[in-house]
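Run Eukaryotic translation initiation factor 3 subunit A through structure prediction, thanks.
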Amino acid sequence: MATFAKPENALKRAEELINVGQKQSALQALHDLITSKRYRAWQKTLEKIMMKYVELCVDMRKGRFAKDGLIQYRIVCQQVNVSSLEEVIKHFMHLSTEKAEQARSQAQALEDALDVDDLEADQRPEDLMLSYVSGEKGKERSDREVVTPWFKFLWETYRTVLEILRNNSKLEALYAMTAHRAFQFCKQYKRTTEFRRLCEIIRNHLANLNKYRDQRDRPDLSAPESLQLYLDVRFEQLKIATELSLWQEAFRSIEDIHGLMCMVKKTPKPSLMVIYYAKLTEIFWVSDSHLYHAYAWFKLFTLQKSYNKNLTQKDLQLIASSVLLAALSVTPYDHTHGASHLDLENEKERNLKMAGLIGFSLDPKRDSREVLSRSALISELASKGVMTCVSQEVKDIYHLLEHESLQLDLASKVQPLFSKISKIGGKLTSASSVPEVQLSQYVPALEKLATLRILQQVSQVYQTMNIDMLSKMIPFSDFSAVEKISVDAAKYNFVAMKIDHSRSCIHFGNMDFESDQLRDHLTVLAESLNKVRGLIHPPTKKASKPDTYILGLADIVDKEHKRLLARKSIIEKRKEEHERQMLEMEREEESKRLKQQKITEEAEAKRLASEYTRREEQRIRREIEERELQEAQALLLETEKRGKKKGKRPIIEGEKLTKQSLIELHISEQLKERQEMEKKLQKLAKTMDYMERARREEEVALIADAYRLRLREEEILHEREQRREIELSRQHHAGDLEQKNRLARMWDNKGIFQNGIVQRREAEFRRLNEEREARINEVITARKQDRLKRRKLLFYLRSEEERLTRLREEEELRKREEEERRKKEEAEHRAKLDEIAAIQRERERELEEKDRLRREALLARSSEPSRPVEPVARPPDLAPASGVYVPRFRRGDRTESPGSGPAAPPEPDRWGRRDDRRPSSNRPASDRWR
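Sure, done. The structure for Eukaryotic translation initiation factor 3 subunit A is below.
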């Protein structure tokens, strides 16, 4: 991590790295500076560094680095200079948007370049093959390669900025501006998925704002400015959602606006409420909720009439006509007919919720259908004077569909009116917030209402009607649509009718279904059979004779006595049972009482425990408050002492000070002191710079004089030293000459001594040289002998190894040849055996065929009764012959039968040998083939 003495040095270093193409290193250097704890005091240089930092992040698409740097910069300048953070964030978003636009323009240019007639002239064959294989067009590829990365980075930029600016009262204006730009981005490029995520992000920010109420610098929604900013964001979200046709997200935006209004207990401006109800009308119309659509239109009409002073009569008439037609478009029957209790409760809850969104307050205990209904809305329109503002065509439609009765030609009367109102509509000139009003959108619903009214009138007049006649009475709809409408109306008990397609007619009236008629057919059959049986066999009356009564009286008395005794015993048993039940009930009541007493005791114990816990919490809270009060007083005394020492005014008295307020006051004082100290340091640094500059300006002349004086002194010193060196050199030379003259008399002795030493050293050198030569020759001779021995040994070892290898190869070759010969012999032997077996099987097949033919001949002879039975002669083919196999049982028959000739000689085998053994019946079965 690089460290810099001043922030300016880091900026210069980053610019140097950028100039040599090392943007990553420059970005890392600036990131280290921004995240360092040494530079926590804001100054103008940090703003310049942040500008350069965000430029690098945008160029390299480093969203994570940008987020970290902006978070650190927010910490630095949040309390000192918030406008600097706003400038940096605006610059960051401007750069990201500009890059995205450049990428889009580049992609458009590439698309225009590809849009030519002759593709072979502008593209290579490889490109054409790639385009056909990949299956995507040039625009899709260019968008994916060029536009998509920058759009992703731009979207990440918006998310990062919103995350940094969220829930901060000092940055809420910039937060709102960023949200608006993000909405416009989603609208411009049709980014529906990103729009849903953006709405969810803003929704989570508001939820966290309500959840964590002890945050520092938390926005106050009760303030008009903050509330207006938050509402503007939600209304912009609502507008974009409707323009992108994201109706579910638009409804959630409506819920967000309504929740925000309920939260602050304040109604927004009428201009915003007009937008609110105008979008509600669109949402309810798309969702086919015609009743809520009509109520939203009614609220919109009320707002426009009350607050819009520029509203013209034509616009008012158009809005009133829309309100009345929307109310008429609601189906005239209740859709909850025959619904279950759960469906009714869900419908009630839904009506309460929708009434809250529209602006109606309902009583939860009262049935909401009585308030939010078609009849209630129409009566309210009449009471509020809406009928007086509508056009004449709409009035005629209203009277025809609602007040006229027994009109079988209703369709012919309303159809021209429908054609007239379908041409009425347009943009309101005096109400720009209201969407374009077109009365033609209500024509299908009005046609459906006219169809229902005709069916209702026809059901009262006719009992049976032809389908063609009904189709002529409803000319604006075919019969399939009329059939669907009638089925729905019959389902909810609006019209009682039945369509018989087999007879092409319609039956009207309260006709039950076949299942209702068959439900009690068995009961009706039983009653009818009882009546028939009574008519066929009427009951006979018994004769009343006194003798009969007297004779049966004793039996009756006896039976009555037994019945009374039995009744008495039954009463006793019932009493005992009752007493037993009473005892059981008393025991159960006692157990319930004990259980209830136990539950009461446990509840009392829990209450006492909770009361004790609550008192302890109150005591602890009171102690904490007392301790905080003492700390606050001590902090207050310390602050007052510091203020008196510095000559400042004391803290404001007369208010109830808390520890939190004192801490905030102390922090603000510290911030002020730090700012004052920074200002003093900057002023001192500026003064020191001026002093240093003035001192250096005054030093210039003095330094030049001192330099010239120093040059003169150096020249004098140099001359003095030069003369002293010359004098010393002369003295040394004179001493050396004197010494030479003194030693000249020993010159001859010196030569004699030197020659003797040289001769001795030469003799010693020659002797040592001869000894060295002799020693070298001995070493050379010994090494030659060793080398010769080593060569002979290596030759012998190599020869022996080659001989062993040759013997091993010859042995392997011999074994291989023997193995091949053995395998060849085995194959020949196996082939001979197979040939012999084949010949043997052929012979056996021939013998079996001959034996079969013989048996068939014998059977043919035995089946002829007229011919005498003659002994069967052995065919000549079965006579024994040499070299022909004869089965054992035939040989035995031939040798053992009486009167037979001498035995045939034994058959020789295939190798020329004869079997001299006699055939024996005890020979095993394996010898049959010898």
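The CA atoms of residues 244 and 901 lie 122 Å apart.
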